[in-house]
Specification:
Nucleotidyltransferase, domain 5, two-stranded antiparallel ribbon, alpha+beta
């Protein structure tokens, strides 16, 4: 609930002041940028959670993704420990449509999803939600806004260092 502070505009000689509560509440989120098989449509799927994400929440997110997407689902993600837990491994063994690959270690520049969260954090910067529910609503609103902006989703892919054949 403590806002990330970014540079902002203010009248000359008047330093902007951001007032906030000293609370450590937070929202955790997971998202996936999707490209249709024929690369005609881009999508964004997001799950917001009130505590730290665990391998169980990642598996729940992947199951929801599998329900929404047809055909094979290829997931490319970083080497985070929550991606390798027992719930995720069990799902991988049970679901033949799910194919998981990992980015090289320490390569966030390859992951277009990093641009999604950089954009969201910019929108949330200097914000001051009064409750955890308000913060939830803000994050969900950003996800909805992005879902309806294929131009931005396309820009996130273009901003990554993925090889051109893997970009839209």
């Amino acid at each position: 609930m403590i806002p990330s502070v970014r540079r902002t505009w203010a009248p000359r000689t008047q330093t902007p002041v951001i007032r906030h509560w000293d609370r450590r509440d937070k929202v955790s989120a997971i998202s996936a940028l999707t490209v249709s098989p024929r690369r005609q449509r881009l999508g964004l799927y997001m799950h917001v959670h009130p505590q730290n994400l665990t391998t169980d929440e990642v598996a729940i997110f992947l199951r929801a993704l599998l329900r929404h997407l047809r055909g094979p689902v290829i997931v490319v993600w970083d080497q985070g420990p929550i991606h390798k837990g027992p719930a995720v491994r069990t799902l991988q063994h049970r679901c033949r449509r799910l194919h998981v690959y990992e980015f090289p270690a320490y390569a966030p520049e390859l992951n277009p999803d990093e641009s999604v969260w950089a954009y969201a954090k910019r929108l949330l910067a200097n914000g001051r939600p009064l409750t955890l529910d308000a913060l939830f609503e803000d994050v969900i609103a950003i996800g909805r806004r992005l879902h309806h902006r294929p131009d931005l989703l396309h820009a996130f892919f273009q901003a990554s260092d993925l090889p051109p054949c893997l970009r839209r």
